[in-house]
Specification:
With 301 residues, this protein is mainly alpha-helical. The protein has one domain: Glycosyltransferase. It is 43% helix and 8% strand. The protein has nine helices and seven strands. The protein has a three-stranded antiparallel beta sheet with strand order 3-4-5, covered by helices on one side. A two-stranded antiparallel sheet has the order 1-2. α3 runs parallel beside α5. The longest helix is centred in the C-terminal third of the chain and has 21 residues. The radius of gyration is 19 Å and the shape is globular.
Length: 301
């Protein structure tokens, strides 16, 4: 058997099949497995008077665009699966109203708090800052909202691309990784962090934006990112798991930041989704990373 290509299998939890592999993606359908997120039950989350999530962060309350987008995509996914509570659509509308209302003139959703992503490897992120993760997920939520409510979604979605395609040095989230690979940063840190899951979430948002608008700029940004993903994936493959980021390379501090179990599952879910969109382009990596999840390792020399 090819040691780099492992057969896919299912995990079992309490007798039920549980797999991180996502086999079919619909830009107008549910967003992966987000219907079961339960954002309002998260320990650090409360809902404001409009029903929009607020995060507790270092003793203060802040709107986190990532959490808001998670909740919007959860509500939409619950709706399209059927059998949703009667007030689900109203909740979704109120969250989307917040998203449209708070998008700034640059097309972004700023983070209003400082953040340290990885102490000892990168510098402190000072507010305000943007994230490719939240930009991509907001696009995915807004493209779906057009199926439920009337809004000037074309203008909002097109404007959201600006932050993604603007270089980090100019306040955006785009970098050219290692001199040749366009990359959209979840954390626009110095030095670069190259967080894998945030990059892939952004690619899904770009795909959704492309399919919703048929805009060549969205298509180009998506295709550039997909090509980068293919070229960079070997750097994240640890032979028995995946790396959360590439700070061990950019900061020159030895030792990869190995993704914990839940994040490795997320990597597989996101990569399998993108692979399905790309007609199996990443299927070998998906199968190998799925095997790592079950304790398999690459053979040594």
């Amino acid at each position: 058997m090819d040691r780099f290509n492992q057969p896919l299998s299912l995990d079992y939890i309490d007798g039920n099949q549980v797999s991180p592999i996502y086999e079919k993606y619909d830009p107008n359908g549910e967003y992966m497995h987000f219907y079961k997120l339960g954002v309002p039950s998260w320990k650090i989350v409360s809902l404001d008077l409009e029903g929009v999530p607020i995060n507790a962060h270092h003793g203060a309350q802040h709107y986190n665009p990532v959490t808001v987008a998670h909740y919007a995509l959860e509500l939409y996914s619950v709706m399209v699966r059927g059998g949703a509570p009667a007030d689900t659509e109203d909740k979704f509308r109120r969250v989307i109203d917040w998203c449209v209302r708070t998008q700034n003139a640059s097309g972004g959703w700023e983070f209003s708090f400082d953040h340290m992503f990885f102490k000892g490897r990168v510098q402190f992120l000072k507010a305000p800052w943007y994230s490719a993760l939240s930009q991509g997920m907001m696009i995915s939520a807004l493209t779906r909202a057009r199926n439920v409510m009337c809004l000037d979604w074309q203008a909002v979605i097109r404007k959201s691309l600006e932050v993604i395609t603007t270089d980090v040095s100019k306040g955006g989230v785009k970098r050219i990784a290692f001199g040749e690979c366009p990359f959209y940063e979840e954390y626009p840190t110095a030095p670069a962090s190259y967080v894998l899951n945030g990059f892939m979430f952004c690619l899904l948002g770009l795909f959704d934006g492309w399919k919703a608008t048929e805009d060549r700029c969205f298509e180009q940004a998506y295709q550039d990112g997909i090509d980068s993903l293919e070229r960079l994936l070997p750097m994240y493959d640890l032979g028995d798991g995946s790396s959360y980021d590439l700070t061990h390379i950019t900061s020159r501090v030895e030792g990869p930041n190995k993704a914990r179990h839940s994040y490795h599952r997320l990597h597989i879910q996101l990569l399998s989704t993108l692979s399905e969109i790309e007609n199996g382009r990443f299927s070998r990596v998906v199968s190998r990373w799925d095997a790592y999840l079950r304790g398999n390792k690459l053979n040594t020399n």
